[in-house]
Amino acid sequence: MEFTRRQLLKFSAALAAASAIGLDLPLPKGIEAAEQADKWVKGVCRYCGAGCGVYVGLKGSKVVAVKGDKDNWNRGLLCIKGNFLAPILYAADRAKYPLLRKGDRFERISWKEAMDLMVSKYAESIKKNGVDSVGFYGSGQSYTEESYFISKVFKGGLGTNNIDGNPRLCMASAAVGYVTTFGKDEPMGAYDDMYHADCFFLIGSNMSEAHPVIFQIVNERKTKGKDVKLIVADPRKTLVAKKADLHMNFVPGTDLAILNAMAHVIVKENLYNKDFVGKHTVFKKMVNPGPPPKIEKVTWDDYVRFIEEYTPEMAEKTSGCPKADIIKAARWFAQSKATSSYWCMGLNQRTRGVWANNLVHNLHLLTGQICRPGATSFSLTGQPNACGGVRDGGLLSHLLPYGRLIANDKDREDMENFWGVLKGRINPKPGPTAVEMFRGFNKGDIKCLWIACTNPGQSLPNLGIYRKGMESKDTFLVVSEAYHPSRTSELADLVLPAALWVEKDGTYGQSERRYQYVEKAVDPVAEARPDLQVMIDFAHRLFKSLGREEEAKKIFAYKGTEDVWNEIRAASKGTAYDFTGMTRTRLKKAHGMQWPVPTEDHPGTVRRYTAKYGDVLVKKFDPQADDVSFYGAKADGNRATIWLRPHVGPAEPADAQYPFVLTTGRQLEQWHTGTMTYNVPELKRAAPYGFLEINPKDAQKLGVKTRDKVRITSRRGSLVMEAKVVDVPREGLVYASFHDPNKLINMLTIDAFDALSKQPEFKICAVRVEKA
Amino acid sequence: MIRSLAVISFIFLLLPALSFGAAKKHPPITAEQDCEECHDSQAQVWQDSKHGLMGVKCVVCHGDPNKNFVAKPTSKRCVGCHSEQVAGTAENHKMKQKNCWTCHNGHSLKPKSAKQDK
Amino acid sequence: MPVSSAIVEIDVSAGEAVLGSLSSMSAISVYGMKDNKIVIVIDAESLEIMEENTRKIMSLEGVIGVFPVYSSVDE
Q1: Does the structure's ipTM exceed the value 0.90?
Q2: What pTM, to 2 d.p., does this model score?
Q3: What is the pLDDT of residues A559-587, one digit of tens each?
Q4: A255-268 and A353-367 are packed helices; what angle lies between their axes, rounded to 10 degrees?
Q5: Among A378, A576, A741, B14, which residue is least crowded by beta carbons within 10 Å?
Q6: Which residues is A200 bridged to in the sheet?
Q7: Are A510 and A51 in contact (CB under 8 A)?
Q8: DSSP helix/strand/coil, A497
Q9: Separation in Å, CA of B7 to nearest CA in chain C
Q10: Do A16 and C70 touch (CB under 8 A)?
């Protein structure tokens, strides 16, 4: 940005001449030329699960700019966060060296010392207390190669399922929702459906802030398409709700009643697609929640009887959403040429998150609004690789790679053979899920825990009790982080500095089954290392100290990310995910590829479960099918399930003592726990700190104005924040974003979780609000 | 020389954003202050534009008022999303100083002939 | 070293050609154009080179005149 005296002189001279002829001169070229990139490297945005394609601009060995990839789905567009990616690499608080806790301080140590210590702690614990005394907590921000590899080390190598990740906090309900309805995880549709939809049904998604580029495409479709309807169901009047043709506002936690009532209207008004329902669906209900849950197949008549009670009147009474709105939404949904649903954490972060997901799928199956352009049931994702690495790659404690399950004998045998490990090595019992894992760490059942690429010290619900466990001197906590201190690394015994984003290479998989390769552009700062390199090193050293050096040489023989990627492709072969044809060379050229990609000449699959629109796996798994086949659900004759899921409210509704509902979420300018975005001056300026949104009517009752300090208290914790009085949350609801490391709103949230997905109910807990 | 100094000072009066080193000063503001507090009319126009809808906020073009403020942003600020168009202006127009704002209004983004803003 | 700015008045039909020629001259920077007037800055190592450039511009086809606006010698 240097602007020399000479350049100024020239500009001054030009300005004098320009003003003589009335010409307006912009700022001199010298200012912009200084930071022009001389090389552009293809990659993917580091932030949300939209997965925008980017080019990273280098000047010498420094990243100086980022621009959107015009040939990728995002058509060159980026949101405010993606636009400012470069500075995250050069932040002052980057973790630069391995650090060891000494009392209240951290001391710099060498990588060798760090790895020796970590390995000795893990080995000692395994020898003394067994493999279930150690664990790993991963991330939807790690590359697929990292998540797949570490999962292999723990599940296939050590034989423990003590490995889970933060997608448990954000995507688990969507994943289990897809699996229970369609047999396999991940959406059948794509972003491309947005260009074809005539009706959008958004529920529990604030895409205007959480996924701005997707929001832009929805807007464009609404503006350019003829009579395109946008329905937004949300207890907050978000920007996208303001743009909606119909905003269905309701009491938080009552949406299951609304979704069943929409189905009621669709059935009663004969708006359902008899042919589709007859050919492609079965009906089920849960007789006993278990575990294990007892499930029974039922009939169409049973289903009709089940939704009988969910009249629009009943739903209005339960939810506060006017019955006219419910009826209108149901009609638009069923009668439009093509309806697409989009949801995010509003449905997932709930104790009935899986059920809510099932009920949205129900609407698509009833109406046949699925498996054709513009008609799809689509879950949006919050992290760049929750889908690709953790869900698909099978890092979660109940999963094995590519749709295989820990609890399934054949799947375990499959993976044992594939990995070349002893038969019976994989523990048949699913391991602890995120919250359970940290409960286990609190109790000391897990003695060594390695957290990589995520910030549970800020993002777990009911945070206070888990921070105590992480801080405990009786257990050993390793944190691999790109920044220090984070609210997690500050609690660690050992901090390992991690290479960030384009300082390493790997694969990201976003919401629409699109896998994209992120090329390495620059070397890591100081002594930071790519997590995969550390993981491979750890695996070899640990197995050596367990006396299994030779085995490690065989099963962990990787030189770099491409070796791991090639094994991953092979692991997907023959599954419903099959992306054998997605070679590294192809990914380097392509602007993302959507699986299935079964062969090297296959272009990728935009829409799944439909032969007519190009899914070649339909013919493979269900040769009789003429078009649609839900081949993931083989046991149900390749049919999807319409579930009888009753309305059940939240774990902790508002009451006399705690009269408000607190909901949390994301704010446009900040991402996740703010470790990256708070390092960008422009973003920090635009959204400097967390605040509490309060409805004007509630604010009046409380005697609170914008910028007043308010104390917000739940049964678990209390926090003072600034109030923002704004007509966004409905009456009785307050909202805070969870990004601010200095305002840990998760000290208040509840750790009750969904019985099926184990995903916590971040979105609803009861609080008291008073002027501080 | 005296004449040239006089001209330069005159230019500084015209363009307070230009001075040696700290080229782009904005009066210091507190973390609590929003741009709209002082720049309400521009914010209104912006709000109704595509950038307003997409949340491409003031800082994207103007930077942080306290740290890297630019009063009159250059096309460099547009590269993140509109790299092709920026490259296009450089290629299509031989004049070195042509930029996005030659044609587009900075806040409404509408073509300048529409005279929507300012 | 002298810096000076000037307005080059041209025949509009020759605009592209003149702009092209100006851009190819190393001491000349084109800052903008309005109607048939182009704003240029001549950044030269000596007064001689500056005069030489001015003459060169004058001789270009389509150039009506070169009118200096401002000049300074940076020491």
Answers
A1: yes
A2: 0.86
A3: 999 999 999 999 999 999 999 999 999 99
A4: 20
A5: B14
A6: A230, A340
A7: yes
A8: strand
A9: 9
A10: yes
